[in-house]
Specification:
The chain is of the alpha+beta class and 137 residues long. It has helices spanning 11-21, 77-85, 111-124, 132-136; strands at 28-33, 45-49. Helix 1 packs parallel to helix 3 (111-124) and helix 2 (77-85) runs parallel beside helix 3 (111-124).
């Protein structure tokens, strides 16, 4: 889920990473688009312009994570991925930040290198990622 808009968010990069994944078991919810952002034509990406989102939707759920990767402070994708996948178990709630992410040596947000590795590891362990909505319904 991507929340309130901030200029440092790499919204297009994150949406493109989901689009390029070709996976049908992930969903990206974006409530932070500006009027100039354009969401890809992809049913896995639900996007709304921030000003048009009913503020009550922000009060629907609270979830705590079981895996914290410190991806806002550490730009090393191997360490960040290791924090997410070490002792990985069914039911874990993984946290990755869409804004304020640490940068890798090439300047890109670390999440862009971690996400494909994470999805591959989940697949290798026969774990199926689900949205919080599906997990709590």
């Amino acid at each position: 889920m991507i929340g309130a808009p901030r200029k440092e968010k790499s919204l297009e990069l994150v949406m493109d990473a989901v689009r390029r994944s070709h996976r049908d078991d992930i969903e990206l919810v974006v409530w932070s688009m500006s009027f100039t952002d354009v969401a890809p034509d992809d049913p896995r990406i639900v996007a709304s312009v921030y000003e048009n989102v009913d503020r009550d939707v922000y009060d629907l759920r609270l979830a705590a994570w079981t895996r914290r990767p410190y991806d806002t402070r550490d730009g090393d994708p191997q360490r960040v991925a290791r924090r997410l996948t070490g002792r990985l178990a069914p039911g874990d709630i993984l946290l990755l930040h869409d804004g304020h992410a640490a940068s890798m040596a090439d300047g890109r947000p670390v999440i862009l290198a971690v996400l494909p590795r994470l999805l591959a590891t989940l697949n290798d362990h026969q774990l199926t990622p689900v949205t919080l909505h599906d997990a709590t319904s």
